[in-house]
Amino acid sequence: MQRTTDRLFTPAERRLALIAAVVVVAFTVLTLLTGGLVTPSAGGQMSRGVSDLPGVTDARPLS
Predict the structure, then answer these.
(1) pLDDT tens digit string along 4-38?
(2) What angle do CA 39, 41, 45 make, to 5 degrees?
(3) Distance between CA atoms of 61 and 63, rounded to whole angstroms?
(4) Backbone phi and psi for residue 26, each to the nearest 5 degrees, phi listed first
(5) What is the DSSP letter of 21?
(6) Per the UniProt record, which residue ranges are transmembrane (predicted)?
(7) Which residue from 2, 12, 26, 28 has the fewest beta carbons nearer than 10 Å?
(8) What's the rounded Cα separation, in Å, for the pair 23 and 29?
(9) Per-residue pLDDT for 40 more than 80?
(10) Measured between alpha carbons, how far is residue 34 from residues 21, 24, 37, 39 in Å?
(11) CA-CA distance, 34 to 50, in Å (whole number)?
(12) pTM of the complete model
């Protein structure tokens, strides 16, 4: 199929790019607005207490 115009993108491609840009901007704005309201799940790891493993010491430099 040979192009009949000297434009880089067709009107359908430009429309799709505009819709994609609007969706990305809307998703970003919603994420920024609700970022402080929703806390990520820690998978139950935050409820368990941190305990030392037997035989494991703190990391120390070699020198």
Answers:
(1) 777 889 999 999 999 999 999 999 898 888 875 66
(2) 130
(3) 6
(4) -65, -45
(5) H
(6) 16-38
(7) 2
(8) 10
(9) no
(10) 20, 15, 5, 10
(11) 30
(12) 0.50
